[in-house]
Amino acid sequence: MESWFGELSKPWKKARFKHLCKLITDGSHHSPPSQEEGKPYITVRDLKNGGIDFNAAAKISDEDFKKLIQSGCAPQKGDVLFSKDGSIGKVALVESSNFVVLSSLAILRPKASLKGTFLKYLVESSPIAGQIESFYAGAALKRITLDQIVEIWGLQPNEEEQTSIVSFLDRETARIDALIEKKQRLIELLQEKRQAIITRAVTKGLDPNVSMKDSGVEWLGEVPEHWEVKKIKFTAIFSGGGTPDKENLDYWDGQIPWVSPKDMKKEQIEDSEDHITTLGLAESATSLIEPGAVLMVVRSGILRHSIPIAINITQVALNQDMKAIRFLSGKVLPKFFLRWIQGQVKQLLFLWRKQGATVESIEQEYFLNTKIALPSPFEQQEVVTHLDRELERIDGIISKSQSSIDLLQERRSALITAAVTGQIDVRGEVA
Predict the structure, then answer these.
(1) Phi-psi region for residue 165, left (φ > 0), alpha (ψ -120 to 50) or beta?
(2) Cα(182)–Cα(323) distance, rounded to whole angstroms?
(3) Contact 199, 339 (CB under 8 A)
């Protein structure tokens, strides 16, 4: 235990959570059907900034609510909620009752001598996080069980010191959180500006005085008069991929990058997590895609809100959830098409989504029959160059803002750890 907390300068009580809490349980292992009105049903996604966001929480019927209360899934005021599956370590103090929780959340009910407000900060501290990580280290799925939670070591100062620590941390973390919120809002505004710049450039061009015409496409509206409007299928060749037999080891760990949706995190693809052999390429439905194609995810849960798209700068193969787009006669620049997709993601997702699919997917027919307004290749390059310059500037500011947020979050964590382990003296703080 000492290895987690180091040498303590104060004679605080050291105990496992099972001795610090009078109840450690979890929520419902059955997800009742949600409805528009009813009682709140809280999951991990509803834990935000140390509290509970009820605004977007699912609602369940009074009948299901009563059943879950009887099964012990309803926290009480002063309890601490702790996420034990997936996004492990998210914490919230329960400040009002009358809701139930899902089994991914543990309910920690502190003993009378331990304040829930102090327990919340204790659970957020580095020593607790380290113990939690030791339980699932090396596991493919991050998860911690109730049997493991009860064995976590914690600290308990006397009640007067708990009050001082909580008062100090409430004030200091509020200041840090306010700074973080401002920077997060700045990032949101920059991302909105980024999106608007792309959309404007790929649909209206760079000349604000250019003559316009009706595109004939309701959602697209007016486009520059000299731009040509045509269906994508008349400009491009569309090809897919496949997966070599996973059981045949001769097909895998070769030299050919095999791109799947998990690799589509940047605009240029030069490698992938998985690789196949020439034999795997020859004896499966996938094929080599030459450099310069536009790669697009066409089947994945991520299509609920975005369309991952990139350009390969080396030969690759694709899995069956990907498509490659190559353009005819050089009339469409791959980078212009990439920006065109980025500029109209919401509209295109609405147009392209396959109805009735169990997993979000893009219907090839809808994609190919979509109309795109195209300037000349020369003007496309002007648009691409302009956007590269503008986006580099905006992305630089976003990156600096995110780095600042990361540093503030590190300071917040360090401050909490120092306070709840007695490394700083906050006696004299008043609640």
Answers:
(1) alpha
(2) 39
(3) no
For β-strands 309-312 and 268-269, DSSP reports them as parallel
CA distances from 3 to 6, 19, 36, 172, 266 (A): 5, 20, 49, 27, 40
CA distance readout (Å), 143 to 91, 100, 344, 394: 15, 21, 38, 37
CA–CA gap between residue 397 and residue 11 (Å, rounded)? 47
Write the CB contacts of 139 (distance below 8 Å, at least 6 apart in sequence): none
pTM over 0.85: no
Nearest CA to 75 among 50, 53, 106? Answer: 106
Going 200 to 205 to 208 to 209, the CA torsion angle's sign is negative
Contact 236, 364 (CB under 8 A): no
Helices and strands, number each (H, E), in the chain: 12, 23
Q: Which residues pair with 153 in a beta bridge?
A: 16
Q: What is the pLDDT of residues 22-46, one digit of tens each?
A: 988 888 888 888 888 888 888 888 8
> Per residue in 362-411, pLDDT tens?
999 999 999 999 999 999 999 999 999 999 999 999 999 999 999 999 99
